[in-house]
Amino acid sequence: MQPHAVDLDELTVTNGRIDIAQVRALQEPLTAIQQRIASLQTKVADIDSPWLIAPVEDRIDELAIDLASQRQRSDDALTVALAAPGLFGGDGPRTYFIGFTTPAEARGSGGFMGNWAGSEKGPGQWVTVYANEGHMYMMVAGIRFDTSGAKQDGSRWHAKPRPTSGYVVSHPEGL
Question: Cα separations (Å) of 72 from 45, 65, 66?
Answer without folding.
Answer: 17, 11, 10
